[in-house]
Specification:
The protein is about 85% helix and about 0% strand. The chain is mainly alpha-helical. It has one domain. The relative contact order is 0.13.
Length: about 210
C-alpha cells in the first residue's frame, strides 16, 4: 500500500513546508485509492515516481533557466572579447575575479529561489543547478569560439600546448582536435559548476533561512 520510500522522501524534500502535507497527502491518497487498485503495485509505483519527477522538474526549471541565462551572458562576452582582442591571453587574476563574482551571483540566485521556503536544502539544490547550467552554456560558447576563431586564436601563447598535442594526435585539422579536447572536458566542467554552485547555494540558502519572518 505504500509508495516507493525513496521517492516519498524526495518529494517531501522538494516541497515547501506549507505544501508538504497537502501535496504529499493528496498524492498518497490518489496512489492508494485510485492508481493502485486500477493498475497494480508495480505500475502504481512507476506512476508515483513519474509524479515526483514531474514535481522535481518544475522545481528545477527556474534555477536551470537562471543558470542558462548567466552562462549565455558570459558566453556572449567571451565571443565579443575574442572579436575585439583575438590574441589576448586569459589573465589569471581576471579569471579568479570573474569566478568569484560568478559565485556571488550564484549565491544570490539560490537565495532568491530559496527565499519563499526558507530551506537551506532548496538553496543548495538551486545553486547546484544554476552552477552546472551556467558552466555548461559557457562551455558551449567556448566551443563555438574555437569553431569560429581557431585560425586566429591558435597564435595565442596559451594555445601552444594544445598545438603540440594536436601535432601528435593524428587529427586532420586543428579545429576538429580542439573541439574534441573541449568536448572531452565537459564532465569536468559540469562537476566544477555543480560543486561551486552547491557551495554558493549553501550560502544563499543560509541567507534565505536567516531572513526575518
Amino acid at each position: 500500500m505504500n509508495p516507493p520510500r525513496a521517492s516519498e522522501w524526495w518529494l517531501r524534500l522538494l516541497l515547501a513546508d506549507r505544501d508538504r502535507e497537502t501535496v504529499s497527502g493528496d498524492l498518497l491518497e490518489e496512489y492508494r485509492e485510485a492508481v493502485l487498485p486500477a493498475r497494480g503495485e508495480r505500475a502504481a509505483r512507476r506512476w508515483y515516481r513519474r509524479q515526483v519527477l514531474g514535481i522535481a522538474w518544475r522545481s528545477a526549471r527556474t534555477p536551470l533557466a537562471l543558470g542558462a541565462l548567466c552562462g549565455a551572458a558570459l558566453g556572449a562576452w567571451i565571443l565579443v572579447d575574442t572579436v575585439r582582442q583575438p590574441l589576448s591571453d586569459d589573465d589569471a587574476l581576471g579569471i579568479v575575479v570573474a569566478f568569484a563574482a560568478m559565485l556571488a551571483v550564484w549565491a544570490a540566485m539560490a537565495a532568491a529561489v530559496a527565499w519563499p521556503t526558507r530551506r537551506l536544502g532548496h538553496g543548495v539544490a538551486a545553486g547546484l543547478l544554476v552552477g552546472a547550467a551556467t558552466l555548461l552554456v559557457l562551455h558551449v560558447a567556448a566551443i563555438a569560439r574555437v569553431v569560429m576563431f581557431v585560425d586566429t586564436i591558435r597564435a595565442r601563447d596559451d594555445w601552444q600546448n594544445l598545438l603540440v598535442r594536436y601535432h601528435r594526435s593524428g587529427f586532420a585539422t586543428l579545429r576538429a582536435y580542439a573541439v574534441y579536447e573541449y568536448v572531452r572536458q565537459t564532465p569536468l566542467i559540469l562537476a566544477i559548476g555543480a560543486v561551486g554552485g552547491a557551495l554558493s547555494g549553501a550560502v544563499g540558502g543560509l541567507v534565505a533561512r536567516l531572513r526575518p519572518r
